[in-house]
Design goal:
The chain has 131 residues and is an all-alpha fold. 89% of the residues lie in helices and 0% in strands. The chain has helices spanning 2-24, 26-31, 36-62, 66-95, 101-130. Helix 1 (2-24) runs antiparallel to helix 5 (101-130), helix 3 (36-62) packs antiparallel against helix 4 and helix 3 runs parallel beside helix 5. It is flat.
Length: 131
């Protein structure tokens, strides 16, 4: 249990690191046409979803039953998919023509970063479990 908290703390550190980069380069990002509000809330949402998904996946990894493992893993995937797609669709429908495409692209890149980080942590946990 203690190791799980340490691993999830790494996701928190990633969130803090990404926000720090955003604050340090805020003026430059504004000059390039990025909406900082979209970037901040996008990063916050991706952090919360990744943290939740990571927690669900660790429960699946710690399970001794294969069906329970797959339920947790697929459940975490479904939470990510539907929540992020719903929020993106809601944002696009809400602001219509004023969609900040550069910020959306950065949020998609952040999604890849969070997902890769989450998978790397889960693979390390799974490797330790098998050893």
């Amino acid at each position: 249990m203690k190791k799980t908290w340490a691993k999830s703390g790494m996701i928190v550190l990633l969130f803090i690191f990404l926000n720090t980069i955003g604050f340090v380069f805020a003026n430059q990002l504004k000059e390039w046409g990025f909406d900082l509000t979209v970037l901040f809330y996008g990063n916050l949402l991706l952090f919360l979803v990744s943290y939740t998904s990571f927690s669900m996946s660790t429960k699946g990894i710690s399970s001794k039953s294969n069906p329970v493992f797959f339920r947790w893993i697929y459940g975490s995937f479904m939470v990510k998919l539907f929540l992020l797609a719903g929020v993106a669709l809601g944002y696009i429908m809400l602001v219509k023509e004023q969609v900040n495409k550069p910020a959306i692209i950065i949020c998609m890149i952040l999604y890849i970063v969070y997902s890769a980080f989450e998978v790397a942590l889960l693979m390390k946990m799974l490797k330790r479990k098998n050893n």
